[in-house]
Every structure is written in structure tokens, then in C-alpha cells.
## 1
Amino acid sequence: MVDLVQATLHGDRRALARLLTYVENEREGVEQSLAALFPHTGHAWVIGVTGAPGTGKSSLVNALAKAFRRRGQTVAIVAVDPTSPFSGGAIMGDRIRMRDLAGDKGVFIRSMATRGSLGGLARATRDVIRVLDAAGFDVIFVETVGAGQSEVDIVRTAQTTIVVEAPGFGDDVQAIKAGILEIADVLVVNKADRPGAENTVRALKAMLEMGHPAAREQLTRHHGQLVSVELSSNGGELWIPPVVKTVAPEDQGIDDLVAALESHRHHLIEARALTGLERQHIEIELYDRLEAALMARLLKAIPGDVLSDVIRRIQARELDPQSAVNTILEQA
Amino acid sequence: MTTEQPIRVLIAKPGLDGHDRGAKVIARALRDAGMEVIYTGLRQTPEMVAEAALQEDVDVVGLSILSGAHLALVPRVRELMDDNGLQDVALLVGGIIPDEDVPALKAQGVSGVFGPGTSTEDIINHIRQVVASRSGNNG
């Protein structure tokens, strides 16, 4: 796999594609490849695109990618679609909306199935982004699965997060609920040529006025604990997410959207928040990886019959779940 | 840390016919068989198909062609895939293909041709076989 790493760094697309497969499959030895690529990462601008199914995320990514290409930047796209919980298979159709990008060697599109992950991304998405970053792409778009109200993993991965809405997707109470709207750095009302677009824009703006911007300095970690991060360490202005109207297939509003994304990036840089954001992402990732590794080690240390016996006793109401955990941890 | 690896399949409709019900039925059946299916949509050029196969690093490419242009399109897709270093990626063709054209397609690097009335089970089994022999060769 050493050859694949070198070839990927030298822009070999076939090697890159194969390495991404190994990363996705967590193939033996891929950890060393990722370690070798890691010093080459940290240059790409990672932009997350999330929103409910049918709001037009793929079309929007298609239009945005074209816009960034016109500016001479190379673009990678990671499009995540759900894995069937029944068969383990998936149908990934995001490329259907991205046909404008075909034939451009400055664009690389990769479809990824969630393979059981629930937060809107796949477990390997973080590492896939890293490989694309090392391969030298300037901008990496990460399109999440059609997201509802709690698929917010993207905000722990991207530097700028776009939340896409469309007219007719719920009333203003939906807009003030916690969850996906809160993670937006830029809000997009796509399909803005449809009736009701103005109402959606108004509801989103009302939601933004209602919310205290400082609340955006807190993000939840996996375990539901709040981690506080100083996003504006110089005491500068807080970022208020702009609301941009677009009609993606017609490229309407795309220039405005690119400008909004640029100003978010400038805000992060000027507020010296980019390093803070990265530090936070690293911290969360470290916790995730530690959790997985500790869990794997722990499960190896506990004999299988102990677990099945405990499950039986809980079901028989002889033991409550938390006491069972305490007992297991004492024995392990 | 090796986990089970789903078979990845690209389903594409090259050429100009605008009818993709068959392609969608196949995509759905392959999904239900536990495969990861990337569906490209209608009116793909051979260049688009070969490039998507490369980026997605698929094990198998399935073409659905109803227009009668298979003798022009299929060899071109195979050639471009080979140019992209995808010699070991299997190419399947489904749709309206006259029996007399099947040998010519198979001689040009097509592993299977599936006409109307083929059971999805046959296609699934064929894909599993070609992928098994492929990973056998590659270690």
C-alpha cells in the first residue's frame, strides 16, 4: 500500500480511488497509509452540505462545484447515502445530479454508503476526506444523507456547513426546534422559484433573530455533554448565518452563495477561529476513536457467556441495566 | 480490523434512450442482495461511464441499453475502462440485445449479457461469481 500512498500524492486518480476503498473497508494495513498521508493534510476547505431529502443537496453541490472550478480551484465531492438496514446494500444516486462535472479532471466524486452509521455520515468519512485533502483538492464538499433533526455529525467534520431548505418543508415551529438548523453557517433556501420561498426565508430569518448567537459557541459531543469552544477568541464579531436563495439547476443565486461561503471562511480566519475549530474536531475525533478502541478491548476481555448471562438476568428483572454494567466493569 | 466488504456496482445508461425502469429494477435487486449500487442516470457518454467507474472503484459495471446502439457503445466503454486501468473490472450488458450480437460483445470483454426475462437472481449470481474470481486473482 506504500505505492498507493505515493501514487495518490502524485495525483494518480486510480490509486486514489483504490485507497479510498481500502479506507472504507478498514482493510488491514490502511492505518499505516493514513498515518503516512496525515502530514500532507490540513490544506483543503471542507464544506458540509446537509438538509432534508429532496431539498436539492446534490444539485446544489453540482452548481457550487462548477462555480469553484471557474475560480480555478480543484474540487472533490463525497456524497453519502444510506445503507439499507435490512440487506446492507445501498443505492447511491447523487451522481445523477452531478453530470455537469463529468470529464473535468479537476473534479473527483466519490459515493459512500453509511454502512450502519447514524449521524448522517459514514464511519470512514473523516478518513476519506483526509485522503482527498492529502491528494491536493482545494475544496472538499461533503454531502450528508438526507438529514432530519439530529444527523449533525457534519459539523464535527466540516469547516463550513451549509444547511439546505426548500419551500414547503415544515412551518416556523420546525425552524426553532433544536438540531440541524442550529449547525448552519450558511442557510440556503433552494428551489426558490417555487411558491412559498419567501415564507421559508422569513421563517429562517425569524429563527436566527430569536436565537442568541453565543449559543453557537457550544456544540455537543457524542455523549451528549456540551463542549464549550471559543469560536471568536479575539472577542470579534459573532457570525450570523446568512440566508441565501438559490435555484441550483439554473445557477441562480450561486454567486451569492459562493460569496457567503467565502465570507464565512474569512470570518473564521480573521477571528482566528479556524485553529480553534480544528482543535475541537481533533478532540472529538480522539474521543470517538478512544471510545471505539476501548470498547473493542473491553469486549475482548469479557467472556461471551458472561454477557449473555447478564442479558438473561436483566430480562428476568433480577438485575437492572446500570448495575449490570457496574458489575461487568468490576470484573473486566 | 478487516470487515465485510460489499460488492460495488455501477449501473449506467449510455446512449440516448430515455427509459430506465429496467436499470432501476436491477439497481434495487442488487441493493437487496447487499451490494452498493451507484446509479448514474440517463444519457451517459462512454467517457462518463468509464470515469465514474474509476472514481467509484467499482467491482462491476452494468450497462442498460435499449436503443440498439450496443455494438457501438459497449466496445467504446470497455476500451475507455481499459485505458483507465480498469481491465479487471467486469462489464455486464442488459437490455434489448439480439442473440446474434452476444458472441461479438463477449469477444470484446463483456462477461455477461442479460436480455428481457432474465431473473435478477441470475444477474446477482453472475456478479458474485465474477467478483469472487477477481478477488481470487488479486489476493
## 2
Amino acid sequence: MSAALLASGVGLVAQTTGNGSAGCSIGKGGQSVQGLCQAANSLHISVAYSAILPVLILSIGALVLLAVSAVLPKRAYPGLYPVLSTAVGGVSLVASVWQWYNVPGGGQGSVEIGGQVFFDHFAALFAILISVAVILSSIASDSYLRREGLDGVEAYVLMLMSATGAALMVESANLISLFLGLEIMSIALYVMAAYHRRRTQSGEAGLKYFLLGSFSSALFLYGIALVYGATGSTGLGLIANYLSNNVLANNGILLAGTALLIVGLGFKVAAVPFHFWTPDVYQGSPTPFTGYMAAVAKAAGFAGLLRVLDQGLLTQQTDWRPIIWVLAVITLIVGSVLAIASRDLKRMLAYSSISQAGYVLVGVQAASGTGKSASLFYLFTYMFIIIGSFAVVDAIQGRGESHSDLGAMRGLARRHPLLAAAMLVLLLAQAGVPFTSGFLAKFYVIQASVQQGQYYLAVIAMVAAAVAAFFYLRVALLMYASPVGAASGGPSGAGSLAVGSAGAGSAGVSAGSSAGAGSAGAGSAGAGSAGAGSAGGAGVPAAVPAGRAPSGPAGATAVAPASRPPSPAGSALDVEAEEDVFGAGLAPIPGFDTAPATGAGTLDGPAGEAPYVSSTNAMVILISVAFTIAAGVSSFAVDFAKAATTVF
Amino acid sequence: MKTTGIPILNIIVFLPLAGAILCMLLPSASWSPTVHTSSRGSTGGGWSGGGSSGSTSGLGPSSALGPAGLVALVVALAELGFVVFLLIDFPSSGHAAGFQFVSKHSWIGAFGIDWNLGVDGISLFLVAMTALLFPVAMFGPTLRGNSRAFMGWMLLLEAACMGTFLSLDLFVFFVMFEITLVPGYFLVAGWGGARRNYAAMKFFIYTFAGSAFLFVAIIALVFLAAPKNGGHETFDLITLARITSSLPHADQVLIFCGFAIAFAVKIPLVPFHSWLPDTYTEAPTAASMILAGILFKLGAYGLLRLGIYLVPRGAADMGPVLLTLAAVGIVYGSLITIMQRDLKRLVAYASIVDVAFIVLGFFAFSAQGVTGGVLEMVNHGLTTGAIFFLVGIIWERRGTLRFADLGGLQKSMPIMAAIFLAVVMSAVGLPGLNGFVGEFLVLAGTFVTHRWWAVVGTVAVITAAIYLLWAYQRVFQGPVTNPANETVRDITWREIGWVTPLLLGIVFLGVYPRPFLDRVTPSVTYLLDRVEQAAPNADVPKTKTVTYSLPANQDVRGRPGSAPGGSGGSGTTSAAATGTGGSK
């Protein structure tokens, strides 16, 4: 794959030989690179390997992993691959940091390899982001994959391949290489989404992601063609040059091309109205992969968007800024509002990630150096937050992702105080509460927006933050909900749930076919928008008869759709629950929307047992929380992001 | 600018924070040897028989505080000690209008943000009130549930409040202003009444949404000011104040509107007040005390410090709007309050009237009005804190606060009735207690500049008497209709010990407000000078003449309200009024 990548890169470079020698004279990566450079010069092709170090390392790392797994007997060393993957991420991290400190042109950056890639702070910082995401996700995936019986080399190879694509995207200086990176990343992500073979939701997620993703890729490609038609080039620098030297008498083609590029990248970053895949994919994908997806795909998509809009089409900003303005506003509003309606943890985080994308769009909309580095900072902090959050979710869900509704968070503070505290920090960071990185990130984005006089956008964004605070705090409240005494109410008392959960524990991953078939109907009923506003809360209790209570969690383990509707005790509560906070007409969350005394104690998490946090998960959570607080209290991360503003 | 050898303001902010972290780390199990807070809480003094009180105070279930409670107690009292030190050390001469004890360190250099603390006459007493009210709120009311988390949140809240009052950097201000929401939220949600989740959420969302405007306004202000600061963005309050008063008129108005919306939600002024009754009724006693006593003041203080200080012209332009809102709030709040059937709800609505009164004073733009407003902030903290404390005691004993269920409590709890009456009198504005001085200054100051608004404001004085005294009647007097009211236990010595500091403050500020006025007046005068300079053509020019016509006759320290006792104060009323008439 890597060879093919390089070959195609060389091929493209060969077409634009004009830049070849000039690029080489700038790109001095070292003595060996110099030698290669001279060799390349004879062919009028310059390859500055230092500019594509992270891409090389990640792709070669993926191949090494594959090779190692081919040599070793199957399942001989199950712990080897995450370690190798982490190591590859580590080497890539070192390389990106090296890049950061060795940006050519005195920090101004340069265009390398025949105008295909940028070598600048922006790319280096994104490469750091991606490398760190690979490291964290590799660590976090290990316990999940082993628990689900999915361990093997493939997951890590896919992760490294998608990281390769992402790393190429962030540094691409040409729409073609951008598309190449986009596809390398996306195809690996499609497979990752469908990785949990025994969960139908996972397969559904993969298929959905793939179909919609390839559609958006096609649109993106068409956008490239139109832009090429309008400007005569696919190189961002050449496009910018052309547009600044020529006034287009009829810019309809360019406008259409710009719009299609925005659609294609908007899909990757899950901006409304291109977000429809997000909840289902995030919910269906294996939890650690979801975190990785939310961090890396979003970051790479935004990096591409910033490259295209800020560097290629900066002269056309009067055209695209209104588009981004509208996208930002509806993304913020829709993401926040729909997150309130969701009753599943992963789904809620998916909508939350949509609304977070809205803030980055606010930074993009500013179309300035500040906006660029603000977006970068936002994505960087969000990477830690979201990977950490999904690591927490992973610990809470348990085997088969069976406890993923919000009710599973109830009473977490008593069952596992440290986990609850970590989640609290991460939630508050997403809400943008001061002394977390999330606050500084919002601050930076809003600052960039206000700097450009976008007061209304800034106010809308902050009011959306207040709306979003609702669902973050709701989870926080559930975790810290006061202890409930003996279950006093519901028809399905604590006993039935305890039985069900015990069954899940003993039956393990064995595919209980009868339970699975029984719950399939209920699962598909809630598939559209599980417990969301459209259902009005009325249908859900009906879909879950109380008789299914004992088999509920076990069925979830086997086939998983049963994790969608509220668990049995919850449905019993739904009937009782009259008072709904802010009367949104939604299915109430047991223990939050209803007073604890009414028997919500039956939902005291999975039968009151403490969630199992593996040591690897704990490490990821710890790193995430530490960074979230450190970057929120001190200024080091901001300084880095600010340094990455240099617009080449 | 005064400094000390020790970084006292940093200590004041970080000490509770450290205490909060320590509390959270401690084991939560409350150990059995009961710690009588009364034996330590006697620092407030004022109650005799400390030796014999140990037996009576041990009855309360709150005595088992656990190690976290002990730590919190030590921290809160140490904090009070530092604040007392600050009070003593603060220059009392009339020359110190600026900020004292300034402590400035670079924080986030990329944005021009400094960790910048300082105190002036206005914030000094708010800090003192905060330090006084927190220990009372933490250890006075009976605590149920997890003491460790409770103490941690309370100390965190104290640190955030201190940070808000002391910050000289807009970023620090905003951060501290926002962070108060988190402990506030968890205090209401964790220890509140039946509908606490709803109340806590409403409280958080309302204020968070309001802060959106503050956030944007602050950033906009910084950017608009940057060109005049050599292109450097700075959040430094003092630097900004030099620049922003000369910003274009329209910008100032818009920015002020942003500030005003945020603070109006927090205060809350009337159209933005709907979160308040729910939150207060559901909040536990301690949180009600702090919410009403201190969190309100964050909004009012912000209005003064950010609104009037930074964008004086915008403030002058929008002044009539806020005056009108305040007047509406007074009338509307009074009417709603009178109709309440629940004691705690009544006190909550009464707070709306009180804070509207504070805003009325501020936007009168006269020295008396603003000084009175500042004094009212402190008064309201003390009085409402005490009232919520006492109401909480009744609730603990009776389990209900509906007037229909109460009545005749005087017979079973005579001491309680006496204390309650004293506090109610302070709230009503009885001469000789603090409420009178503040109300008098506000009304006199408003009358000077905005006569008709003052007339409306006077309504509050009358209606306050109606609803508070009527409430007192319905709770404590009359025949005992409900047999449960016959055997209610009176206020314990421990509780008396905790309420005493507040009572002392009430009496002290009422009888001898001069130390207060001495320190507040220079800062207020400085503030109003800015308004006057920035908006010479606005509605304000009268302020100058009034402001200085009074000190011309009397020493700066001999401001009208500072005369001891009520009669002296009213004696100067006519002087003030005539002086105004002459100057017009």
C-alpha cells in the first residue's frame, strides 16, 4: 500500500516537474536526505522524506505489523500487537515532534515533493495529534478487543493505515493528495466500524459509514474536478495564485466545486446536515474505535478543510464564509439539541461530537491565522477528551457493550469514584467549564470569531454551549445521584435485573440465539433513533415487555440490539414518570427525570457492581484527564497552537 | 498601592481551593467521636455559657462532621482570619481609591492573560462578607449526607467567589464567575429538596446561557481595545479601563448590553429571574445562604466592576433601562412576594426585590446611590444569609414551611422568634440596623438624580414591611392551630453561636457604618468620575455636583449615612435633599 502511495505520489510529481528542483533546494532533511535529493534531482523529482516522515512511519509500521503477524503463529503473543502499534505511534510522535522543531524556512514552512505536501507547523502539530491518538487508542483498544474476543493484528493495522491517511491529509498541498489521504483513512475506518463481527450494530455501522462515506468521497472528487476546471490546477498554492491573479468572470463552476469540497469534508467532520451517519456509526462501532474515529477523522477532515479553504480558496472567502457560517450555526444547534434527546451514552457522545464540530467550524469561519490555530487547538484538546470519554464508556459498558444507556451511569460515583471523577472532568471539559482544556478551546475559537467581527456567531455558539451543558451535566448528575435505598417501586425490581446481569456474566459471549432473536425486533424498532425525540417515549416501553427482563442484558451480550431500548427497570419507570425536565416529551432517564425514591434504585448501574477498568484503560483515562486539566490551567498547549498559525 | 510581605490575596483565593482538594481526598466515613462544632464555632463570640452549651449542642445530628468537616472548619476559619487581617491592613484613609495588594503574574501569555488580583474598597467588604458567611453556612445548618463532598464543594465555591471579587483580569473574572456554577450545581443537586435536579439544572443553564453574552462582550472589548494598547491584547482590568472609556459610543453600548444580560441573569433582574424561586426553594439551607448571600453579589459586583467601570458611557446610556428594570423588579417582586404561601419561597422572592434595590442604587450614578448599593450588597448577604439559616432551622424542626402549617411558634421557640424578628427588622430597614443605612443611601442617591424612580423604589420599603412582618406574624404569632407546633425545639446554642456573627454584623453596620463608608467612598467616587468624564452629555452631570456638594459641607467620612443611629441619618436627609435642589 505504501509503495503504491509513493508511486502515485511520484507519478503526480512527475507531471509537475517545474517545481522539482526548487522544492529540493529548500528541503534539507539531513545528509542522507540530501543524497536522495540529489539522486532525485537527476530525474527532476525531489522527495523530501523529512516532510512525509509520519506518513512513512505509520504506513511502514502497518506493514511491519502485518509481516510480524504472518511470521508468528496465530494468537501466540496477543499482547504484542498493541505494543507494536503503540511503538509505531511513538516513533511517529517523535518524528512529528522533530518535524515541529525543524520546519524549514525559519518556521515559515515550505512545499515539498513537487507541490504535493506542506512541511509546516500546522502539519507537524496535526501529525503529533494523530500520533498521540494512535498511541492512546492502541492502548485503549487492547482490553476491549480481548474482552470481546476480537484480538488480532488487523485492528491495529487498520488503525495505523487510517492514521497514515490522516497524516497525509493534514500535510497535503494538493487536492489529489488530499483525496488520496481521505480515502486511505476512510476505507480503514469503514472496516474498523464494522470490526465487531458479532454485533449487528457494528456491521450496520460499517455499512452505513461505507455507503455514505463513499458517496461523499465521490462528491469530493467531483468538487476537485470542478475546481480544477475553474482554476486549471489541483495544487492549493497554484489555485490560490491563479485566483489572486485572475478575476473569474463567471465563477459558477468554482462555486459549485467549493461547495462540493465542503460537502465532502463536512461529511468527514460530521457537520450538520452531513451528520446522519454519525450517531449510528459512533454507536455501532467498537467503543475504543469510536473514540479514535471521533478524534482522528474529525481532525484530519478539519485539517483538510482548513487547507482547502484557508490556503487554496482564501481569495474566495466572501463566497465560502457564509456557507461555513450557516453550517456552524446549524451544527451547533442540531448537535446540542439532538444530544439532549438521546438516551444512549455513545449516541449522546456522537451528537456531542457533532456540536463540538460546530465550534471548530466557528474557528474555520474566522478565516484567519487565529481561527486556524484556534481550530487546531480545539481539535487537539478534543482528541484527548473524546478518547478518554470513550475509554470511560468502554469500562462502564462491560462485555458486549451491554450497558450503554444513560441509566448505566447512575450511581457510578459510589461504585467507582475515580472513574466517575475522571468522567466528570471530561464532561465538564466538553461543556466548556473553566480550568479545563475545553474552556480554553472554546475561548480561543470565540476569540478568533470575535476578532473577525462575528459577534452573532460567537453569541450563538456560546448559547449553544449552554444548551449542551444540559446533557453533559445530566450525565454528571446521574453519576453523582444520591444513593437510593431499598428499591421501593417498580414492577421489575432489583432482583430481575440482578439475575439478568448475572446471566450476562456467566453466559459470556456465547451467542444465545433465542434471546438474540427475541430482542432483534425490539432492536430494530429503536434502530432509527433510539429513544430519541421522534419516538416520544411512548413506543419504547411498549417494545420492551417486562417479561424480557431476565434475558435483557444477556441478549444484549449476544446480539446487542437490546442495549438500545432502556433497560427493563427503566421502562417500568417510564410509565410512572410524569415530570420530564424541561418537558421535552422525551423518554425520561430513570433516576434523573424521576425522583430517586420512585424506585430508580433498580437501575443502580449494572446491579450495583463496580465497572471493571483495565489497567490499559486506566492509563488512557489518566493521560486524557491529566492533559485536559493541564492544558486548561497552564498555557503550554495554547502556545503551541498559536505557533502553528503561520500561513504558508 | 499597598502591598504586604505575604501574597495575601493569593492566599485568600487558594486556601479554600487547597482545602477543597484536601477534603475530597479524605476518607468520607464520618467517624463516631462527635465533633461539636459549637465548641470551635464560638469564635464569633457573643454567647455566654460556652461551658454548659456543649451538652445542649450535642443533640443535633450535624455533630458528626468527620475529618473532612474538621479540615473544612479549620480552612474556613483560617480564611476568615486572613480576611480580617486584610480588613485591618487595608488603608482606611480616603486617598486609596485604587486597587491594593495587587498581585500580578503572567498566566496565558499568548492571549495577554495575567493572574491578576487586587482589592479596592468595593470588593473589600464583599470579600469580608464572603469569608464570614461561608463558615456559617457550612457548619450552621444541619448537614445530611456526604460531608466530605459537601465541604469540598463549599470550599471550592468559596475559592471561586473570592477569585471573582478579587480578580483584576477579565479572563480571571470570567473563569471564576463561571466556575462558581459547578459547585453551586452540585450543592443544589446533591443536597436539595425533591425537585432538586430540575432546580439545579435550571440554575446552571440559565446562568451559563447568560454568561455567553458576558464571554463575547469581554472578548470583544479586549479586541476593540487592542489597537490603543499598541496592538497587544490584554485582559488587564486597569489597562483596559484606561482605554475603553474612550471607545466609540455604539461599541460601549453593545458591550455593556452583553455585560448587563449576563449579570442580570445572575443577579437576577426581573425578566431573567425565573430560575431563582425554583433554585432557592429546592436548595439546601447552606446553598440557599450562599446563593442568596454571595452568588447574587457576583452579578451585582460584575455590573459595577465591568459594566460601569469599563464602559462608563454605555452604562450611562443604558442606565435608565436598568433603572426601569430595577423599578419594575421592585414593584413586581413585592407583589409576588406578598402572595407567597411558603416561607422559603417568600424569602427567595424578597431577594429579588432587594437586589433590584441594589441595581437601583448603582444606576442612580450618584455617590450615595452607589455607596448605598454596595452597602446593600453586604447587608443583603448578612440579612438574607441569616434569614435562610433561620428558615432552615424551622424546616429541620417542622418539615414544612407553609404558612398554613405554621403559626404560634413563638410559644415553643421564643429565642428563635426574637432572633428572627431582629433579622426581619434589618431586612425591613429599621433604623439602627444595617438595612436602614443602605436603603436610605440608595433612596437618597436615586432621588437626587432620578426622582421618580426613587419614588417607585420607596414602595419597596413599605412592601418589605408588609410581607416580612406578615410572614413573621403568620409563623410565630397567633394561636397554635397545628398541634405539631407546640413541641418544636427552640434554636440551640450551637445554632445561636453560628448566627451571632451575622447578627453582630447587622448591628455593627447599622450603628457605625463609618469604617465601611470610609473605605468604599473613594472607590465609588473614582468610579463615578469615570462615568462623568466619559459621558458628559448623558443623563449624569448632576452626579458631580451632588457628589461633591456633600463632602464640601462635611468631612468625607461624615457621609450622611455614617452618622451613628437612625436619627442622625435622617437629620442629614433634608440637607442632602436641599443640596440637590439647590444644585439643580
